[in-house]
Design goal:
The protein is an alpha+beta fold. The protein has a single domain (about 1-90), classed as Enolase-like, domain 1 (2-Layer Sandwich), CATH 3.30.390. It has helices at about 35-45, 50-55, 70-80, and strands at about 1-5, 15-20, 25-30, 90-95. Strands 3-2-1-4 form a four-stranded antiparallel β-sheet. Helix 2 (about 50-55) runs antiparallel to helix 3. It is globular, with a radius of gyration of 12 Å. It starts with a strand and ends with a strand.
């Protein structure tokens, strides 16, 4: 399953995600801190969706209410149909 998640309140404008069952196959951020986001993408590759959500959800970036890892967790929640909170209201997913 592939999807593109439109982010809210962080530097990258979207996150492209590909899952193979419950496993993350590929993650690509559009914009943001190139090296850090490539690192995050490599670290989560091969991880289960649930483990990734547990590890990344709630991480903040400075004074922002969210971060790139947090938005990735919410994108994964949305992909697998786990309810989201009003904090992420407005973030929209589009199927590729």
């Amino acid at each position: 399953m592939k999807t593109t998640y439109k982010t809210k309140g962080i530097c990258p404008s979207k996150i492209a995600i590909e899952l193979e069952g419950d496993t993350i196959k590929e993650v690509e951020f559009a914009g943001g801190c190139n090296g850090n986001l490539k690192g995050i993408s490599q670290l989560v590759k091969g991880m289960s969706v649930s483990e990734t959500i547990v590890r990344l959800e709630g991480i903040r970036c400075g004074i922002r209410r969210s971060s790139c890892p947090d938005q990735l967790a919410w994108a994964l929640r949305e992909m697998v149909g786990i309810c989201s909170s009003s904090l992420h209201e407005g973030a929209v997913s589009e199927a590729d």
